[in-house]
Design goal:
The complex is a heterodimer of chains A (367) and B (187).
Chain A (H helix, E strand, L loop, with lengths): L2 H12 L10 H9 L3 H25 L3 E13 L9 H17 L5 H4 L5 H13 L30 H12 L17 H6 L27 H5 L13 E6 L5 E2 L2 E3 L6 H13 L3 E5 L6 E12 L6 E17 L12 E5 L1 H7 L2 H7 L7
Parallel strand pairs in A: 1-7
Antiparallel strand pairs in A: 1-2, 1-4, 2-3, 2-8, 5-7, 6-7
Chain B lengths: L1 H13 L12 H5 L1 H11 L5 H5 L12 H10 L12 H44 L17 H6 L33
Helix pairs in contact in B: 1-5
Amino acid sequence: MNTGQRSARQIALKAGWPAKGPVCFSCQHQISRRTYAIAAAAAVETQTQANLSHILPVTSTSSQQAYQVRAGVVLSRPPLLTRDLHPFEKAFYLYQRRLNERLALPFTRYFYFKKGTPTDVEWKRKVKARLTPARDIGVYNAYGDEGWNDEVLVGAKEAETEWQVESLLKDAEAPITGIPGQESENGAGAPNGVEFDGEQTPGVSSEKGKVEAVERLMPRVTTADRKGDMKSLDRLLQRSLYLLVKNKEGRWTFPDDRLMGKENLHQAAERVLVQAGGLNMNTWVVGNAPIGYYSFDFPTRRPGLQKNAEELGEKVFFMKARIMAGQANLTENKLGLSDFKWLAKEEIQSAVTPRYWNAVRNMLAER
Amino acid sequence: MRRSTILHSFYSAFRPLSTRTLPANCLRKSFSPITQSLRAPNAAPFSSSSRLLARKGKGGGQKKDNRITQIRYHLTHQKTPRPLRFSRLRALRHWTIHRAWQLFRAKQRTAEQLELERQYNSMREACEALRLMDERGMSGQEGGREVGRLYRIAMEKKGIWDNVPIEYARIQMDYPSREGWNHEWTR
């Protein structure tokens, strides 16, 4: 119902045409210009009546009937990590980096390292091992006789992200003792550097080869993933997680509740979040419009809220919300919920009824 | 220094052009008006001090900064532009890889597009159901007194960008943080 339609209707009224009808304004306008306007008007009249008779039964009997209007909340935790790369993507990126190595200029060592400095010595040592200035493409010399051989075999370790990250970190490790000529006084300071992150690095115990530990990254697969802890928000960090709750009937759904009084969907969503998961969630309800809709007809009609009203079914409108911090706590919930889970999209399919899944699947993000 | 000896052969090539390096029989030297005007003070310096005190190096005049020489040397390296030579089969393989990548990206883009369409359609259906719904939840015809009240409110755009949390702008990382999710957050 927008102003355009309304004004069109007003113009149609002024022109003496029936206000309500299935004929649009432009058609009415054309019809009115015709010489057989009366016949057309008659046709419009009959259509209007047919339309009215179609509505009337509903409006006449619906004094008793109603649907529960409910607001549901799709509370999601956005993905915290980037997606896992497809094996083809990994292989292609390595291929491109090696091609780049073939195209690039020779590395200008004198420009970056002053001659004879420890960094220069360090650089020479590293380049001797891997033959190329790039740190994460494996052993490959684009300038040598074997320069044509830039492709790796299928399943090579160089294409794996873990291997590349590991080689980058290894490159960042600087030997504590420095170059052999300058080492003598560094002996006392060396243990401190190793102790900092001692248990995570493969300790190199020989005196000369001691390296300063570089902090290793946290794994992308968390302990919650390994344990299968469905309640933790640390699981499946590269996917969106959705809050599902077990309601009074024992079914898994998104948290929802009936609209109270004159409140709108946004307000209802905020209320449902607090009543279901407690106050200790930092959430934000995105926008005012619903993102999905689930309609269900009860097998038997139920008594409604008002007297002599009966409910045919329920209509749930889902609002989108995000969680930024905190965790759901159902101990004081007012909606009769007994359990909750944080699930990714395809896990929801097995948890909910097929009918519910069909209504809900399209509004959920793939990742 | 060995580096200097290597670079020395290139040095004359990258030294900026000056009047002194031009050969005696060079036409530009004799006819260029710029050179003419420059030559006059050279021949008889009017005042004196700075030019007379200028250090006369081996190459003549001020020596260029070594770093600049090196940058110019490497920018005009003999090995640039680097040729990428492929054998016939290697070129065919490269073409195949390239096509495979294009197909892969096209599939990804289609999947993303379809996902957005699904989400949009879901939202549109929900809004349509809301628009035709009266206060009792029955779907009536447009234009009734209480029909579409929730829809009109849902279409309200006023203030939807207010109080957007700053955490919403958090970008995705390759590796998780050490602390993990903040489960203990309290209001």
